[in-house]
Prior knowledge:
Layout: H1 33-43, E1 48-49, H2 62-77, H3 84-92, H4 102-113, E2 122-125, H5 127-139, E3 145-150, H6 155-163, E4 167-171, E5 173-174, E6 177-178, H7 180-192, E7 196-202, H8 216-229, E8 232-236, H9 251-254, E9 260-265, E10 277-280, E11 284-286, E12 292-294, H10 295-306, H11 312-324, H12 329-332, H13 334-355, E13 367-368, E14 376-380, H14 387-397, E15 399-400, E16 402-403, E17 415-419, H15 425-443
Parallel strand pairs: 1-15, 3-4, 3-7, 7-8, 8-9
Antiparallel strand pairs: 2-10, 5-6, 9-10, 11-12, 13-14, 14-17, 16-17
Bound molecules: pyridoxal-5'-phosphate.
Amino acid sequence: MTITGPVPEAGLTGADLTEASLHASLSDPALESMNFLNEIGMRYPEAISFASGRPCEEFFDVGLIHSYLDTYCGYLAGERGLPADQVRRLLFQYGRTKGIIGDLIARHLELDEDISADPESIVVTVGCQEAVFCVLRALRRDSRDIVFAVDPSYVGLMGAAMLADMQVWPVRSGPDGIDVHDLAAQAARARAAGLRPRACYVIPDFANPAGVSLTVPQRRLLLDCAAREGILLLEDNPYGLFHDGEALPTLKALDTTRQVVYLGSFAKTGFPGARVGYLIADQRVAAQGGGICLLADYVSKIKSMVTVNTSPVTQALIGGKLLQHGCCLAAANQRETQVYQRNLHQVLDGLAARFGEPGAAVGTGLSWNTPRGGFFIVVTVPFTADDAMCEYAAREHGVIWTPMSHFYANGGLSQLRLAFSQLTPEQIETGLGRLAAMVKSVSQ
Ligand SMILES: Cc1ncc(COP(=O)(O)O)c(C=O)c1O
């Protein structure tokens, strides 16, 4: 946020505002967390940043954008048999609120995730972030409706919930992600307090920020628990495809009772500049006037009042990328997956080389988790790793990481998140050296 200097309230004139008169989310530190890291990055441009969970850039190519568009237009004219004027209209005009690439997304889900989704249950959104906001907005009838989320959680969930005026109720984290027993306990507590648990937000694969993944038995326990408690599971899965060759089934693939709303993003498997995501909401809803609709129909009504429809041009880009790879995003991302796996192992090996094996580090008191994929590793340190320490690390040692306290309702002060997706091997080597120097200087 740009502040030009302290402006005394007394100096305000008629049309000026106070922050306190704006939506409460705007005064919440959670909405500042991205700004904090961006600012540190800008102030210390020489620092090596383990903060950003952005996709690697080495395969970006402007030519691909043209070729994706051509491929998608060719598909409309060929496989779909649309005349030229309809192809033009589809790209240039306002479009269907649920989107125009639901059929291709359904093919991708079948191939990559073993999920069979009716395209009618898919809403294409402006990034996954819009999907999160719209589904929370739909589920919040009044102030009694709450959403559970594991503590620590993704800031995008917390921000979207704030904008939807929905309370996020924290659930304890186990070593592999959400603690299912605590979820049941928290549901009972919330109900006793007169609240209505509606959903639980989870990232079962290589979670942001914790890097952990739920085991298959835990996934089944979670589905059973959600069914028993009558809550939906909001499954967010931007990192699942970046594994070591052994994929675990998504909750949606295991879901036999339509308990799961699946939140998809093409920010990592496509490219974030397209701003295309989607959700699958195949839950049936008894309409007030009689008849049965899909939750997707209601979510799309909300979307129609937020962004009207997702840009057909950027949908065409993602559609073209899907078509060029037979709708298989695992195939489309082979090179990227190799980069992320290489970086993951380099960071894990580099930490072990500098601090000993995790948990066994004599003298340093450091430990870290060992994910099999994704973009993130969490390091636990024997000192306070807060914003001030992050600033010190950038200033004195030329290395940036994310304080985990940004992701906790309360706590996380001795943890930091290392994101390695965007770094070269040389940067990782130098960055870990700087991290080790910082740890040494703080521990002395
Ligand atoms: C957990 C999680 N969900 C979703 C996203 C991506 O959202 P979008 O598709 O809006 O870029 C991210 C990206 O950082 C993420 O970490």
